[in-house]
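Holo prediction — pyridoxal-5'-phosphate.
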Amino acid sequence: MSDSPISGAELAKLTVDLNRLARNLWWTWNQEAQEVFQELSPRAWQNLYHNAVAILHEVSDYELRMRLQDSEFARKAREAVGIFNAYLEEKNTWARENAPALVQNPVAYFSAEFGFHETLPIAAGGLGVLAGDYTKSASDLGLGLMGVSLFYREGYFQQAISPDNWQTEYFTLLNPRNLPMEAVRDARGDPLVLPVEIANSQVLFQVWQVNVGRCTVYLLEDHRPENDQHARDLTLRVYGGDRTTRIMQEVLLGIGGVRVLRALGIQPSVFHLNEGHSAFLALELLREKLVEGKRFNDAMEWVKDHCVFTTHTPVEAGHDRFDAGLMSYALGRFQKQLKLSTAELMALGRAHPKDENEPFCMTVLALRASRAANAVSELHGQVSRRMWRALYPGKAENEVPIGHITNGIHLMGWMKGKNRRFWKQRLGPDWEKGVNTQEFWDRTSDPAFISDEELWAFRYHMRRELIEFVRRRLLLQGRQLDKADFITYDRLLNPDALTIGFARRFATYKRANLIFQRYNDIVKLVKDPQRPVQFLFAGKAHPHDDEGKRLIQQIIHLSNHSELQGHMVFLENYDIHVARQMVSGCDVWLNNPRRPLEASGTSGQKAGCHGGLNLSIMDGWWREGYDGKNGFAIGDDSHPGSVAEQDRRDSENLYRVLTEEVIPTFYARDAMGIPRQWIAMVRHAMTTLVPKYNTWRVVQEYTQKYYLTH
Ligand SMILES: *Cc1c(COP(=O)(O)O)cnc(C)c1O
C-alpha cells in the first residue's frame, strides 16, 4: 500500500463504502470491520453500544474524510471494505454446489423474533438469537434465504431493578435512522405499504429491510398514520400487550409476511415456520390457492407441500392458543375471504377437530400445514412426538412425523476479539474459512499448536475482561455513587477464582436458584481461601411472570445482603452484549433446567470456543454433546416423575459434581501453577463440541433434510 495522499475520488468512494458497510450486519461478525468503527470513536463505540450507523452520524462527513487522510486508518478501512465486497461477491459457496435450486426460489424463514446484535433488540431470548445466528450462517453458506419478522419500535423491554429488588420494565424507542435498516420502497420510490385484514379493518403496514450479509430480513411495522389509533401500535413491543395484541401480531406476521414476498416478486420454494407464531401464513397461502380456483383439499395439499415447521419448546405455555371468540374476532374480515366457517377454521388448529371446547393452537395449525416438522434436540424430538401424537391417530408415538435437528450458534458472531485475533495471528488472514470444521478445532488438542501455558493465559485474559466488564457495569447500575464506590467496585469479584456463570431468561423451569438450596454449603465454597468460587447471574423474567421476578429478587438479595456478597453478582439488563461477555469469561457455564423442558439451549455452546466448560443437566443439546470428558453432567439421562423429587435430586447432584469434580479439577495445579487436567478438558471440549454445535452445520442439515427433499 502506498502512503501517498488519498485521491478525492477514492475518498468519496470509501466514504460511501463505509456507510454501506455500517448498514450490513455483516460487520458485527468481522473483526477488521468492527475495528474501523471502533477506532473512529472509541468513546462513542462504548456509549452508543457498538452501533456503527450511529457512529457514522456522530462523526461528521468532514471528520471522516480527514481521518481517511491517515494512511494507516485508510488502509484498514480499505481492507475491511475489500473483505466485505469479496464476501458479497463470493461465487464459490456451499449452497452454489449443494442448493442451487434455492437461489431462484429461496427459503422464506418466518420468525416472530430475530436476535442479531445488541443495537437491534427485537428478540426476547434464545429463539430469536437462534434465528439471528441461523440467518448469519445461511449468508455465510450462500443459501437463498429471506427472513420475515416484525419491527418492534420499542423492542424487547429493558430491565431495571427497583429498590426492593423487583424487576421493572422500561422501553426505549428505536430510531430506524440510527439502525442498520432501510425502508423498502415501491416502484415509485415511496415506502412500500401493504394491507392486511385484522378484525374488521384493513390495517396498513410498511416494510423495513435489514441486510444480514448476503441475506435480507424484512420487518413489518403497522405504525402508519392511515391506521386507527388501536391498530397503530400492534408492533410496538416484542410479545407486547394482551392476547388480542398477540393474535393480531401473528396475523400481521403470517399473512402480511406472505404479502411482502409477493409484492417483491419473491416466489419461495419453501416457507419455514420458526415456531408456531407465524402459522397464519398457511391461511394466506390457502386463500391464494382458493382464489386461483383450487378446491379446499387441493389448496391445503399445496400449502402442505410448501411449508416446514420447527417447534421450539415442550413448555405448554409456549404454544399460543386462542379461543373461538378471539379467533373469529381477530380474523373476522380475513375469514370471509377464506370462505371458511368458524367451525372449519377452528378445526385447522385443533388436535381433535370436532371438539368445540378445544382452543385454536398455532402449533397444531403449523403441524397440519407442513410437509415436515422437527424439534431442536433428540430428547425434545421424543417429547414432541408424545405431545402431539393426538394429531396423528393410528400412528404409534415413535411414528409421529416430528424429527429433530439440534440447535447451534453462529461462531464468528460469538467469538470475542481476543479469540479472533489469536486465530488470525496463527493461521493468517483467511483463518475464518475453516472455523466451523473439525480440522480447525482439532488444532486445539495439539500442545505444539497451543501450549497449556498459553491456553491458561488466554483463559485468564477472558476471565479478567469479564470481571472488569462486570465492575464497570455494576458501577453504572449503582445509584447515587460517591468516590468510595469506585474503589469498592474495582475490588469486586476475584480474578483468580473459579467463575461460574448462569444467564438466560428467568423462566421458572430453568431454576436459576437451584444451587442455593444448599445455601450454607455454598457460603463455605465461596469463602474457601484456597479454592474460592464465585457466581455471575443475569437474565430477564417475562413481565407477567411474578415467579420469575421472585427468583431475580432472591438472587439480587443474596448478592447484596448475604454472606455471598462480593462473591456473587447479578448483572442487570441481560442482552446479547452481556451474553457475549459472560459466555467468554466464565470458567463454567451452569445450566440446570427441569428436564426435559430445555428444548435445546444454546448459551452453553457459546462458551465452548472460548474455553469455558459446561456444567449441565442432561437435557437438550448437552445430553448429546457430553461425552464424559468434555465438561460436567448433573445427574444422568433420566428424571423422576415428581417435580419435588427432581428438584431435590438435581440440587444434590449439582452440589456433588461441583465439589467432587469441578472445583478439585480447576484447582489441581502443578509446580508451574497450571491446572493440566482442566486444560485437557478444555481442549477436549473445543474439539468435540465447537465443530458440531454451530449453525453452519444446522443450516446444512435443514437444507438437506427439509428444504431440498420433496
Ligand atoms: C444465547 C442466548 C440465549 C439462549 O440461552 P439459553 O441458555 O439457551 O436459554 C438467550 N438470550 C441471549 C441474549 C442469548 O445470547
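READOUT: The two ends are 52 Å apart (CA to CA).
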